[in-house]
Amino acid sequence: MEVKIGVQYAPRELVLESKLSPKDLSEKIEQAVSDGGILRLEDDKGRQLFIPVEKIAYVEVVASNLRSVGFTVDA
User: Known InterPro entries for this protein (predicted)?
Assistant: First the structure.
């Protein structure tokens, strides 16, 4: 799953690929927000990301889809 996180006062969003299912990812985000602590996520390469929940502007979870590679010819 691709996760995009907007952080307050940051010019760019954080983007990572997660191995978690959409349901597990949503539960993890909701738990961190309700606790008021830190959202900790790990990407598919094992890197960890720590974000204080009070600085989170938004979280977008996007289903990863494989991109096809090739060329098309319009007639």
Answer: DUF3107 (IPR021456)
Residue spans of the domains in the chain: they are 2-62
User: 25 — phi, psi (to 5°)?
Assistant: -65, -45
CATH for 2-62 is: 2.30.30
| CB environment 57-70: b (16+ within 10 A), e (fewer) | eebeeeeeeeeeee
Instruction: Read off the pTM.
Output: 0.74
Q: pLDDT for 4-55, tens place per residue?
A: 999 999 999 999 999 888 889 889 989 999 988 899 999 989 999 999 999 9
